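Reading a protein record of the kind used here takes little practice once its layout is understood. The reader may check this reading against the record printed directly beneath this paragraph.
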Amino acid sequence: MRTPWHLWLIGILSLLWNAGGAFDYVMMKTRSSAYLAQLSPAQLAFYDGYPFWVNLAWGLGVWGAVLGSLLLLLRTRYAVHAFVLSFLGMAGNFAWGFVISATPMTEMMADAGLFPLIFTIAIVVVGALLIVYALRMAQKGHLR
């Protein structure tokens, strides 16, 4: 069965999209001074206050998405699993950030306008769409 052209397009675009998340994660975890300079003291304290499980969820969300994109390009059905794990990690991270933490992200980023909220919604929507897409490609036999 011939691989549809859109699988390559979606795979490459999703890898580029998820590489942005991986870059953010690496810059935050390596404490890049140039990268951290863009954050307010309140934002930095918020991220520094992540409990262990939120850090774990964040990493799962980021690296699961990168892995899912790579597995999609390798045409393996395990891309579905990686995207689902990524989505679960994302859900844990955002649950902490918007619901559980003492200072919700919306309050902390109020000065930035609507962009952080809109971008967060875009991350969730793209994550869900990648699960659906990979699942459909697996069901159609394009993923082994």
Observations:
- The mean pLDDT is 93.
- The two ends are 11 Å apart (CA to CA).
